[in-house]
Amino acid sequence: MTDQAVHQPTDLPVTLPLATDAPLDPPAEWEELRARCPVAHATLPSGDTALYLTRYDDVRALLSDPRFARPTERDNAARLAPEGAGGAAVTGSSAFAIPDRGEPHQRWRRRVGKYFTAKRMAALRPGMARLAEGLVDTMLAEGAPADLRASLGFPFPVYVICDLLGVPADDRDRFSHWSDSFLSVTRYTADEIRTAQREFVEYMAGHVAAKRAEPSDDLLGTLISEADEDGGLSDDELVATGVGLLVAGHETTANMIGKMVSMLLGDRTRWETLLDNPALVRTAVEESLRFDTNLGFGVRRYIGEDVEIGGHLVPGGSTVVCSMPAANRDERTFTGAADMDLTRTPNPHLTFGVGPHSCLGQSLARTELQVVLETLLARVPALRLAVPATALRKTEGLLVGGLREVPVSW
Hints:
There is one protein chain. By secondary structure, the protein is of the alpha/beta class. The chain has 15 helices and eleven strands. The protein has helices at 29-36, 56-64, 88-91, 102-113, 118-142, 148-153, 155-165, 172-182, 190-213, 219-225, 235-266, 268-276, 281-291, 324-327, 362-379; strands spanning 6-7, 14-15, 39-43, 49-53, 146-147, 299-303, 307-309, 312-314, 318-322, 384-385, 407-409. The chain has a five-stranded mixed β-sheet with strand order 2-3-4-9-6, sandwiched between helices. Strands 1-8-7 form a three-stranded mixed β-sheet. Strands 5-11-10 form a three-stranded antiparallel β-sheet. Helix 9 (190-213) crosses helix 11. The longest helix has 32 residues, at 235-266. The termini are far apart. Residues 1-6 have low confidence and may be disordered.
């Protein structure tokens, strides 16, 4: 901390979530906040106040700091959701026993993360490609127009994560409801959330018990059979791991598939560029991740001690919301940040976070997005949005952002 540090400014207060002119557009406030008020006061849907970061360097520095983690029930943090409306991912519920900070968290990450390496994902890629081909076959057979989210965006990552965890994909509709309740900010009532959470935990506990009784070679089965010298994961940790991976492994990727395709089709020259040069798929996926403005509310951190952020003193006890999509549009880091450049490299976007709490499944998500985009370019080159991009509708009331549907034709 420097002697020049001062308390955060109080001008340019904002109310989250910020409104946009169109579903794929950035909020108008981001540019001014980055320029004039990089540590702003923000009112959350609960009515509580947090600090809101929009500059790349500030967001990256805070997310990289191992002292600070996502708020839990034991922290006296600003609440994101109104009383009773928040799911476990929003409230930091203690019902899910994954260690959330320090060495216990890193030990859990090392144990689970070895199943999500780029090498392992490359081995899964041929199976993913066959799955995507089959889903596209069905969509084409049923004819246009189609909802790309329902036909491909949602089922594809659900089938992949269910296969990894060894849970039946036939239960995907239940997973979707449980996942939405887990991520609820304003969508569900307290009773609906409690019921869904109980059902989800009971389901996964039964699944873990079955894996203990009959070992398998999927991720959960392997975690059970490869318990190391300190005993491996407890049943509660295995249940929490299964729940967390099932939610994160399909919800965010399902949303991103729809948003990526919508961004690429919203300006037809982008799609044509990829048709002319399919080798750009990898950089196009990274740029889609950077360019996405609809990630949700942002990643929260509870500040347990005084810390300097961007030259401003943030006192201990504060809750900070890191806007990764706002940081991803920072001209200080990205030349031509307001333009979608499918050849951009390097592309150090923060969509998967950074540091000790970065997204564990980012190699999986990248592989899924690449496979989907390659399949659509090859199989449906005439793909187009069936409605103007401005007519797409945002998902509301959840911690993560997305589109309700993605109408397409060809």
